[in-house]
Write a structure and sequence with these properties.
Blueprint lengths: L2 E3 L1 H9 L4 E7 L7 H12 L4 E4 L1 H7 L6 E5 L7 H11 L4 E5 L5 H13 L4 E5 L8 H6 L9 E4 L2 H10 L3 E5 L5 E2 L9 E5 L8 H5 L3 E4 L11 H17 L5
Parallel strand pairs: 2-3, 5-6, 5-10, 6-7, 8-10, 8-11, 9-11
Antiparallel strand pairs: 1-4, 2-4
Helix pairs in contact: 1-2, 5-9
């Protein structure tokens, strides 16, 4: 049975109204703990049962449960066709984050948290050789994963082609090549592709990008963590659009 652990992650899972079956609360918790009381109230408002269990039971679920966990149904991915519909509805403001074989749950969770903050239309991850939306991912994302349209696709290159056909440009985030990110035109409907932690984008994915962008760096650091680099690029797109002159 899958679980979500941690106060923020549980609250966001409940608010997403998708998959929480019951909330498990540390039986030794003090009644005046405001943070946990908020979890209980949120569950009550959604009609979700709360069950008090031993701390040992919660420890079995996750070592950093913060006194609360939620029993949930498996994560519900958005069909790719549904993501395309969202993109078309968003028009010129459409923004999709495509992750090419990202491996680390912490990196995926961090990028999903950023993605929600900048109002992406959706997120694409491969079905194979890539991290899924797990408990660790939901926790790292502080519950953001529950509010995003995340689609798993069998072939990310084909998905990029379909998004191009829907009117989006595809920008690949590269370590060495490409236009400096703050000099690129990123204010139209866009797919931002972030590669894996070790080798970046695969060759075929890279070749299917319309253009490449890079983050200029000084000093001995060769490249930034995938989540850091992707988040910087996402925020730049967000700020570029915020300052775009009205048409």
């Amino acid at each position: 049975m899958p679980y979500v652990a941690g106060r923020n992650a549980v609250v966001e899972a409940i608010r997403a109204r998708q998959r929480v079956r019951r909330v498990l609360l540390d039986a030794s918790t003090r009644e005046n703990d405001a943070s946990l009381r908020s979890v209980v109230e949120t569950a009550a408002q959604a009609g979700i049962p709360v069950e008090r269990v031993s701390r040992a039971r919660l420890d079995e679920i996750h070592p950093r449960h913060q006194g609360v966990a939620a029993e949930v149904a498996p994560f519900s991915y958005t069909p790719f066709s549904g993501l395309v519909e969202r993109v078309q509805a968003d028009g010129a403001s459409a923004l999709v984050l495509a992750l090419d074989e990202l491996q680390d749950p912490q990196n995926l969770g961090s990028l999903l948290r950023t993605a929600l903050a900048v109002s992406v239309s959706g997120v694409i991850i491969p079905e194979h050789r890539a991290v899924e939306v797990t408990l660790a991912v939901v926790r790292t994302s502080a519950g953001a994963a529950e509010h995003l349209a995340i689609s798993r696709v069998a072939n990310i290159v084909r998905a990029l082609d379909d998004l191009k056909a829907a009117g989006l440009w595809v920008a690949g985030l590269d370590v060495r090549d490409g236009v400096p990110y703050d000099e690129a035109k990123l204010d139209g409907p866009l797919v931002l592709v972030v590669g894996s932690e070790g080798s970046g984008m695969r060759r075929l994915v890279r070749e299917h990008c319309d253009f490449l962008i890079r983050l200029p760096m000084a000093g001995a650091t060769e490249s930034l963590n995938a989540a850091v680099a992707g988040s910087i690029a996402l925020y730049h797109v967000f700020r570029s659009r915020a300052h775009r002159a009205p048409e």
